[in-house]
């Protein structure tokens, strides 16, 4: 499983990217949309998500900081072709540049790791957000 993450400054762009993916062979079960919200008291699900996904603590904190100030679209792709299609779509809809360490021109990040169900950022399901 390959996880693709795009962070958007505008919630509308994240929603448009998600809608585009759903209209183009992606399923609702494989796309998580986490719109920008004020952080409430309680566990920091965004930090938990990025710490689970990224081994580098500093990079995970950077992504979490950006994610708290934007909307996050996560695509759980089943193969490299699907992952690249997701990257292209998220970039085309305006995913922000997260200053990737690999100096890639891609703004969305492609990470080969499965995300545990309890760490996913699926909609507004958590009362802590």
Describe what this molecule looks like in 3D:
This protein is an alpha+beta fold and 129 residues long. The protein has one domain: Alpha-Beta Plaits. It has 4 helices and 4 strands. The chain has a 4-stranded antiparallel sheet with strand order 2-3-1-4, sandwiched between helices. The C terminus is likely disordered.
Number of domains: 1
- If you consult CATH, what is the topology? Alpha-Beta Plaits
Structural class: alpha+beta
> Which stretches are poorly predicted, pLDDT < 50 over at least 5 residues?
124-129
The neighbouring-strand order within the major sheet is: 2-3-1-4
What general outline do the C-alpha atoms trace? globular
Strand content: 15-25%
Average pLDDT works out at 83
What's the CATH architecture name?
2-Layer Sandwich
- Count of DSSP-assigned helices: 4
In N-to-C order, the SSE pattern is: EHEHHEHE
DSSP strand count? 4
Please compute the radius of gyration using only Cα atoms: 13 Å
Tell me the span between the first and last alpha carbons. Answer: 26 Å
**CATH C-level name:** Alpha Beta
User: Helical proportion?
Assistant: 25-40%
- Specify the biggest β-sheet: 4 strands, antiparallel
């Amino acid at each position: 499983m390959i996880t693709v993450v795009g962070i958007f400054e505008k919630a509308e762009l994240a929603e448009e990217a998600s809608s585009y993916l759903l209209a183009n062979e992606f399923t609702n079960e494989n796309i998580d949309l986490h719109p920008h919200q004020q952080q409430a008291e309680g566990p920091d699900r965004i930090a938990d998500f990025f710490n689970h996904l990224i081994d580098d603590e500093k990079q995970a904190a950077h992504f979490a900081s950006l994610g708290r100030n934007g909307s996050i679209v996560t695509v759980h792709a089943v193969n490299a072709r699907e992952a690249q299609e997701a990257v292209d779509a998220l970039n085309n809809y305006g995913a922000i540049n997260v200053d990737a360490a690999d100096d890639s021109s891609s703004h969305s990040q492609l990470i080969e790791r499965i995300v545990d169900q309890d760490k996913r950022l699926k909609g507004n399901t958590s009362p802590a957000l």
